[in-house]
Amino acid sequence: MQAQFAPEAVGTSEDRFDRFCEAVSTEVMPITLSTRHAADFQAGIRYLDLGVVRLSFVASSPVLSRRTAAHVRRGDPEHVQLALITKGALRISQRRNESVVAEGLVLTDTSRPSEGECTGEQIESLVLQIPRQALALRADRLDRLLAQCLAADGGSGAILTDFLKTLLAYGPDCRPEELRGMGSVALDLATAFLARQLGDPGQAPAAARTQETLQRIHRFIENNLGDPDLTPQLIADRHNMSLRRLYNLFDDEPLTLAAHIRRSRLERARADLARGDLNRQPVQAIAARWGFPSATGFSRAFREAYGITPTEHRAHSSRMPAGRGASQRWLGAPSGSG
Predict the structure, then answer these.
(1) What is the pLDDT of residues 169-185, one digit of tens each?
(2) Which residues have CB under 8 Å from 304's CB, separation 6+?
(3) Contact 298, 310 (CB under 8 A)
(4) From CA 338, how far away is CA 317, in angstroms rounded?
């Protein structure tokens, strides 16, 4: 589940800085980094894949960062990034806003140019990367929060930061389906926190409230795919709405509600069949875990979706390198970086 680059495998401090720049540009977004500490540079990066969102921990010697319009054109994940500065301070500027953040939260947008400078002997931060389309808040309203120091020592900010710290500490021990559930919780907490910074969340426009409801339903489905009793009526009841309104929410979605549930279950079963640590579990046991009580029905649905049988997919996957839900890159990591 984890991959590690040991400090001794990286080479000189200058090599470490080059590798750090490469890791950030590849794993996060294209950006230019510079440092006055190339001769003794130290850094560590950890990633935790949470499904809808991603959590990163970054610890490094002080660096300066610059993301230009050219960088954005070269590569844009279309994320907003909510960063918790846990050590040191960060001077950040974006869209005519500028702040110095220490032990607080700061929001940035990968689609906009930005500049940042770390101060102190070492900088450590937890970064929640959120796809913009998953955040049920209008972009023009979020612009007001960019590069602003957002207090994290009380209320929803304290709840969010404590959750992210706990998630980083214990998340690597969780199964992929658990991590996806935790990702949904992280997204809900981040949305609630940002909405509170913008004012009364109840004042959100109707379109944003509809999108938020749809995202909440999607997350409910993802977290309950293994329940064979997961039906449209159950989903409607749990969200205090009529069945007709539930179906209407999916009118503009690429799949109907039933098709979405079916495809999501197939994707989870497909992923588990590719896991080496589950190769001793019968195909039917994995199918049942994801809501397919009939072996024949599962096999037929799987073949229709992917063109091969579940057994053939498992055999093919056993010859391929296994994927990782969490990864870790340590480049001469600073002491005490966790």
Answers:
(1) 999 988 888 898 889 88
(2) none
(3) yes
(4) 34
